[in-house]
Design a protein that fits this description.
The chain is mainly alpha-helical. The longest helix is centred in the middle third of the chain and has 27 residues. The structure holds acetyl coenzyme *A.
Length: 428
């Protein structure tokens, strides 16, 4: 029995609903019996006040700018751990010992190759296709290749599907890039780290030895950590909803990729860099700030604002620091970074952004780093999808393992015509 209760008065009657407490964060009013008891639904488009599931993976306090994975602060993970370690943590709940981590990395490395027939699949796409279109198609197609890991009621098969997805995503993303620039696909190299291997598959060519630059490898790995999971965001909720019907895991992740592509979600990193390039120099910032504040102008400052963070996104702090590290390692001087810093400063001192609690999000600085490493803007969201795959599969696994899991099926407030008789076409 819950200790706390919420009362609802409706149609002259009072109803009592239990209030559930998580380990931290806001309480939730358990309204699962609301419709049965009252015949009414709740109305919450965009789920601004709705907890859609119970989860033990990731915690965000948007007001305080806190992000924890299995309890560990993102800043500590980004500073001290690796993407493989964070992946293990998200999937299994605890940080691995050295031996367990080695074994996990070995397993992931042994799943990085794609079925050779999948390479043919790429050739069906136009060369100028957006990498996210290719990723959506190829990841969906995995469901037609790996039949031995699609019985979702079998935990072992779920584990294999999860490992395959995490392992193959860098290969799929790198191949999408190679295809777009007309270069041969580069096969995985098991001697390299997860991230070093991805860099080689993306930027290596068969004619030359590829040297992984440690500072770039570290920065890339950190970017993957920062994107690994983010509780019930739009694409994760999409994966959960698709998976709630018992759908094939590869198809569910393809659905997540489709959702992530949008400019209000994963596509914002691409949009943020395009915006910074369009602004160009700090003297033009004022004009864009005015546009962002103008209600009649659809322009928004990309990389600013967040549904959950009403404070500085902790991932943006790490990103800003990483820009300097990558610039130093590659000896890059991109004036766009100065423009970004100045834009942040001007926006944060403007009452419009302060009142609406709009701060830089993870996407504001990530594009500057990725561009310095050599990625075209169209690849940015594909990199996000690569990293978020671990969050998607961890959340999907958590959902499928939950004995209380049921198909997701929201209700609606119907505002269309009430029942009326069909009119034959000649009488209309
Ligand atoms: N620039 C200017 N004004 C903004 C911005 C922005 N970037 N973001 C929000 N606002 C304003 C809105 O116009 C609105 O004003 P109003 O109350 O006067 O109507 C108010 O702030 C609240 O905005 P909503 O869109 O209602 O907030 P919501 O929580 O639904 O949206 C979102 C969050 C979509 C991220 C929004 O801030 C946005 O569009 N930002 C730019 C895109 C972006 O950077 N997305 C990346 C998100 S992080 C991620 O997905 C990894």
């Amino acid at each position: 029995m819950a200790d706390k209760h919420a009362k609802l008065e409706l149609g002259g009657q009072t109803y009592d609903f239990p209030v559930l407490e998580g380990s931290t964060g806001p309480d939730v009013v358990d309204i699962r019996k609301l419709y049965g008891l009252t015949g009414a639904f709740t109305f919450d488009p965009g789920y601004k006040s709705t907890a859609s599931c119970e989860s033990a993976l990731t915690y965000i306090d948007g007001d305080e700018g806190v992000l924890l994975h299995r309890g560990y602060p993102i800043g500590q993970l980004a500073e001290h751990s690796s993407f493989m370690e964070v992946s293990y943590l998200l999937l299994n709940g605890e940080l691995p010992s050295k031996a367990v981590l080695d074994e996990f990395e070995f397993t992931i490395t042994r799943h990085t190759m794609l079925h050779e027939q999948l390479a043919q699949f790429y050739r069906g796409f136009r060369r100028d296709a957006h990498p996210m279109a290719v990723m959506c198609g190829v990841v969906g197609a995995l469901s037609a290749f790996y039949h031995d890991s699609t019985d979702i009621s079998d935990p072992h098969q779920r584990k294999i599907a999860s490992h395959r997805l995490i392992a193959k995503m860098p290969t799929i993303a790198a191949m999408a890039y190679k295809y777009s620039v007309g270069q041969p696909f580069i096969y995985p190299d098991n001697r390299l780290s997860y991230t070093g291997n991805f860099l080689k598959m993306t930027f290596g060519v068969p004619a030359e030895e590829y040297e992984v630059i440690p500072a770039v490898e570290r920065a890339m790995d950190r970017i993957f950590i920062l994107h690994a999971d983010h509780e019930q965001n739009a694409s994760t909720s999409t994966v959960r909803l698709a998976g709630s019907s018992g759908a094939n895991p590869f198809a569910c992740i393809a659905a997540g990729i489709a959702c992530l592509w949008g400019p209000a979600h994963g596509g914002a990193n691409e949009a943020a860099l395009n915006m910074l390039r369009e602004i160009g120099t700090p003297d033009r910032i004022g004009h864009y700030i005015d546009r962002a504040k103008d209600k009649n102008d659809p322009f928004r400052l990309m990389g600013f604002g967040h549904r959950v963070y009403k404070n500085y996104d902790p991932r943006a702090t790490v990103m800003q620091k990483t820009v300097r590290e990558v610039f130093d390692a590659l000896n890059v001087k991109d004036p766009i970074f100065e423009t970004a810093l100045r834009l942040e400063e001007i926006a944060l001192s403007d009452p419009y952004f302060a009142e609406k609690k709009l701060f830089p999000n993870v996407d504001f600085y990530s594009g500057i780093i990725l561009s310095a490493i050599g990625f075209p803007t169209t690849m940015f969201t594909a990199l996000f999808a690569l990293a978020r795959t671990v969050g998607w599969v961890a959340q999907w696994n958590e959902m499928i393992s939950d004995p209380g899991q049921v198909i997701g099926r929201p209700r609606q407030l119907y505002t269309g015509p009430t029942e009326r008789d069909y009119v034959p076409v000649e009488q209309r």
